[in-house]
Amino acid sequence: MELNGKQVLVLIDLYQERRLLWDSSDSQHKLKNQRHDSLTEIAVSFEVDKNEIERKWKNFTSHFWREKKKEAETKRTWSGADEPYVSKWFAYQPINFLGDKNKPSKTQDSTKRK
């Protein structure tokens, strides 16, 4: 399955609308049937198999995290202090909603007494 640029952006939008597919804090994320149904809806809209959509999405997210890592490395090491790395991948900004999904949530200190 080959996607043109416009189709890639549509796929990203469809995923973003279905938070349960990518956000582990979503209450329905652990419901396998709900995730399956959401992926099937996306696959039907592209007239392909659900597994094909999953494979494409994995490729896109891998590409996104590689780009994100490059940005972070140039900021951290100052190796590109004059010109930090900025992704030129056309889908980087649209898929950037994934950037916050792995941030740790605030925790409470259970050792403090009330």
Q: Would you give an account of this structure?
A:
The chain has 114 residues and is mostly helical. It has one domain (5-78, 88-99). It has helices spanning 5-17, 32-46, 50-77, 92-95. The model has no long low-confidence stretch (mean pLDDT 84).
Secondary structure: number of strands: 0
What is the H/E string? Answer: HHHH
Count, helices: 4
Q: Tell me the number of structural domains.
A: 1
Taking Cα atoms only, what radius of gyration do you get, to the nearest Å? 18 Å
Given as residue ranges, the uncertain stretches (5+ residues, pLDDT < 50) are: none
Arithmetic mean of pLDDT: 84
Proportion of helical residues = 40-55%
Q: What amount of the residues lies in strands? A: under 5%
What structural class do you assign from the helix and strand content?
Answer: mainly alpha
Largest sheet: none
Distance between the termini: 58 Å
Task: Sum up the overall morphology in one term.
Answer: flat
Protein name: MADF domain-containing protein
Pfam families: MADF_DNA_bdg
InterPro entries: MADF-dom (IPR006578)
Domain MADF: 10-103
